[in-house]
Design goal:
CATH superfamily of the largest domain: Fructose-1,6-Bisphosphatase, subunit A, domain 1
Radius of gyration: 20 Å
Largest sheet: 8 strands, mixed
Strand order of the largest sheet: 4-3-5-6-7-8-9-10
Mean pLDDT: 89
Low-confidence stretches: none
Shape: globular
CATH topology of the largest domain: Fructose-1,6-Bisphosphatase, Chain A, domain 1
Oligomer: single chain
Number of strands: 15
Bound molecules: 6-O-phosphono-alpha-D-fructofuranose
Helix content: 25-40%
CATH architecture of the largest domain: 2-Layer Sandwich
Strand content: 15-25%
CATH class of the largest domain: Alpha Beta
Number of helices: 7
Number of domains: 2
Order of helices and strands: HHEEHEEEEEEEEEHEHEHEEH
Distance between the termini: 60 Å
């Protein structure tokens, strides 16, 4: 058998690390200062530290439950706490982050010493119920400008359209950090050997239409008639429209969102009779994902309106989340609005 001399392209050879990419100003933000660039790099450091712990989870006695429950009433996994503590420890430094709103904390953590002018919202480890069975999990974050003083909880209660940046890290078959400042969405793959994230997905665009749908059909009895009609629509035969779609559902938002961002189609966690505001939290799950999908040319809807226009009433406000290809989200809205 002939040996091919072809070697796969390796973004790491290009030297385009996350830090280099940010420092080169590829994330052009009007009026960006060194503080913003430094904050993005700090988030990259937190992601590296968490990636390192997640990769060794089974070996470092960080699997399992702490026995506590968080503000959401959910049992807390050890890695949830480790990831939350990592973000606080890292973002407390350098003075660019003035406060953090985290899924794991009832109230925001404020850094009175900081002057950098930014706030961070974060789900430190999303999908933690999947940790023990080695299914992909992730971190989701958003960055807001702190435009008023003093910093209080109200400083965080902004609609997602006011994010300066947003991103996620998926700890899957590889670890990929995806982020945007609204101008282009870029992905960086973790190279454990080099201890760096290297540019691997430059300028991600969500396909205009896909053939995958992602929803927990176990909730169907609680959906509105419009959502049920949409669910039947995507499963019905129409060869010209590429239907029936195939169903994919991991149960980890970052995994389902990452697949939808790259391959197109739709992910939906709609409101239902059990969760009339939806299950996912606006500030650190739905909002950052909506910001990313719109920046990648996709859409992000509540089912009847734009997620990025929803103003959170509390740090832990929930919101229905329908993200994906523009055409597929528009179809969902057509049924959802009835
Ligand atoms: P369900 C994980 O607990 C999570 O918050 C998201 O990551 C995920 O999309 C959703 O909940 C899954 O919820 O009700 O389908 O198990």
């Amino acid at each position: 058998m002939t040996q091919t001399s072809w070697t796969p392209p390796d973004s790491s050879a290009a030297g385009a690390t996350l830090e280099t990419f940010i420092l080169e100003g590829m994330f052009k933000v009007p009026g960006a200062t060194g503080a913003f660039t430094s904050l993005l790099n700090q988030i990259g450091l937190a992601a590296k530290l968490i990636a390192n712990r997640v990769r060794r989870a089974g070996l470092a006695d960080v699997l399992g439950w702490t026995g506590d429950t968080n503000v959401q009433g959910e049992s807390v996994q050890k890695l949830d706490v480790i990831s939350n503590d990592t973000f606080i420890a890292v973002l407390r430094r350098r003075g660019h982050c003035m406060g953090i709103a985290s899924e794991e904390l009832d109230d925001a953590v404020l850094f009175p010493h900081a002057t950098g002018g930014y706030l961070v919202t974060v789900d430190p480890l999303d999908g933690s119920s999947n940790i023990d069975v080695d299914i992909s999990i992730g971190t989701i974050f958003g960055i807001l400008r702190a435009d008023s003083r003093p910093i209080t909880t109200a400083s965080f209660l902004k609609p997602g359209r006011e994010f300066s940046a947003a991103g996620y890290v998926i700890y899957g078959s590889s670890t990929v950090l995806v982020m945007t400042t609204g101008e282009g969405v870029h992905g960086f793959t973790w190279d454990p050997g080099a201890g760096e994230f290297f540019l691997s997905h430059e300028n991600i665009r969500c396909p205009q239409k896909g053939n995958l749908y992602s929803v927990n059909e176990g909730n169907a009895s609680r959906w509105t008639p419009g959502v049920r009609a949409w669910n039947e629509h995507v499963k019905s035969v129409d060869v010209a429209d590429g239907r029936p779609y195939s169903q994919r559902y991991v149960g980890s938002l970052v995994a389902d969102a990452h697949r939808t961002l790259l391959k197109g189609g739709i992910f939906a966690y709609p409101a239902d009779t059990k969760s009339p505001e939806g299950k996912l939290r606006l500030l650190y799950e739905a909002g950052p994902m909506a910001f990313i999908f719109e920046a990648a040319g996709g859409s992000a809807s509540t089912g009847t309106g734009r997620v990025l226009d929803v103003v959170p009433q509390t740090l832990h406000s929930r919101c229905p989340l329908i993200i994906g290809s523009r055409s597929d989200v528009a179809t969902f809205e057509r049924f959802s609005r009835g």
